[in-house]
């Protein structure tokens, strides 16, 4: 659930005032409009527009002609695929992923893949709302998440850490997203890591939909350091549902330690009973040892060398759900917003 309601957020994100995307066009290749799946959470997403095709001119206008000032991917211009923030004419904020030229040579194949991902609708996802094929251009359009990535808040914020209850929420919500995708026939997630976890306007974590689609028709599915890559992918170059669970285990390590620790090193620490050494010192001991032990145990299972020994997404949710005993915990992201509103002393914040 969201952690707060603020008129500052409403003012900053006016897309909530416009629930219908004004740029919908006729679906290509006779695709049906996505129904949102069978999950009731999808039905609750009335503010998410139907998946549709965007024109290149619309996206150029939204991103100020793909200005470098609008790049929000933390790898910046070195990233093989850039992500821009943008604002449509209906004032909806969007995220636009721009692929390198000819990453998907066949526009029909790109559109088919995008429509497959675009059928998904869930409150734990930063949902895909459209795509664009124009000449050599291949772009994906998703909901915009304004509060940065898990990686930024864990690794690059020196003065404010994510409290333990929020870390448990992140783990559960991403597990729920993976379970939903699996039940909807999209079990493969490419390169799951802390940069793929985004925080929405309410400070709640969501899983980026971009990872549900490969970087290219024939491209690699993992771009992170090989030390964090599932061992079976190194052997055969294929992503499996079990590979996704391995990557989820690396995210659990990030949440536990506040650092990016190679799985092999973390497993050595776990086997050596060095649990306290694994925990993030910025938590200053403010966590439940019992809960931390349960998460560490789950991470260890996810990181097993043999894929068949890893849990499935349903098991992940079943293990993490009982640990989330504070559903109303306020995200510090929302606290920062409320403080900002108070300092401004705007009528909306009073």
Describe this structure in words.
With 350 residues, this protein is an alpha/beta fold. It has 2 domains: 12-143, Phosphorylase Kinase, domain 1, CATH 3.30.200; 150-334, Orthogonal Bundle (Transferase(Phosphotransferase), domain 1), CATH 1.10.510.10. 36% of the residues lie in helices and 11% in strands. The chain has 13 helices and 8 strands. A 5-stranded mixed β-sheet has the order 1-5-6-3-2, sandwiched between helices. Strands 4-8-7 form a 3-stranded mixed β-sheet, with helices on one face. Helix 6 packs antiparallel against helix 8 and helix 6 (164-183) runs antiparallel to helix 12 (313-320). The longest helix is centred in the middle third of the chain and has 20 residues, at 164-183. The radius of gyration is 20 Å and the shape is globular.
Protein traits:
350 residues; alpha/beta; Phosphorylase Kinase, domain 1; Transferase(Phosphotransferase), domain 1; 2 domains; 5-stranded mixed sheet; 3-stranded mixed sheet; 13 helices; disordered N terminus; disordered C terminus
Sequence-ordered SSE layout with sheet pairings:
Elements: H1 7-12, H2 40-43, E1 52-53, H3 56-62, E2 82-87, E3 93-98, H4 107-118, E4 125-126, E5 128-134, E6 137-143, H5 150-155, H6 164-183, E7 197-199, E8 205-208, H7 231-236, H8 241-257, H9 263-271, H10 275-278, H11 289-302, H12 313-320, H13 332-344
Produce a short descriptive summary.
Helix content is 36%, strand content 11%.
* Poorly predicted tracts of residues: 1-44, 337-350
Within the largest sheet, what's the order of strands? Answer: 1-5-6-3-2
Q: What's the main sheet like?
A: 5 strands, mixed
What is the chain-wise order of helices and strands? HHEHEEHEEEHHEEHHHHHHH
Helicity range: 25-40%
Q: What oligomeric state is this?
A: single chain
Number of helices: 13
Number of strands: 8
Give me the secondary-structure category: alpha/beta
Tell me, what's the shape? globular
End-to-end CA span: 23 Å
Q: Quick check: average pLDDT?
A: 81
EC number: 2.7.11.1
Domain Protein kinase: 69-324
Region (Disordered): 1-44
Catalytic activity: L-threonyl-[protein] + ATP = O-phospho-L-threonyl-[protein] + ADP + H(+); L-seryl-[protein] + ATP = O-phospho-L-seryl-[protein] + ADP + H(+)
